[in-house]
Give the backbone structure.
Amino acid sequence: MLHGVLIVLAVGFLAGEVASRLRLPRLIGMLIAGIAIGLSVLDVLPQPVLDSSSEIRLFTLLVILLKAGLGLDKKKILAQGSVAIRLGFRPGVIEAAVIVPVVLRRKAHGLGVKKAFPT
């Protein structure tokens, strides 16, 4: 397991550096490297890493969101006032109120399960 995690970290770091030198965001290089070493292309990751890939993806998303959130300027957000609040909360509330119940209802009725629609 440790061997696989070290592969992911090393390849991701190197790809981020290459992307940075190409004047691209590091995240783009890391995403491309992740796709390349995954099941789709090279398939070099050991099975324990693949088994825990959902937890790794969740942790990665958490890190990305934290990094993005910590990079926000509080004074600029406060200067925007209610616009920032509306743009921040309205999409999430609408999705939670409309889209999620529809998907759950379809899943309960078995609609779209063959094509993985609820997923």
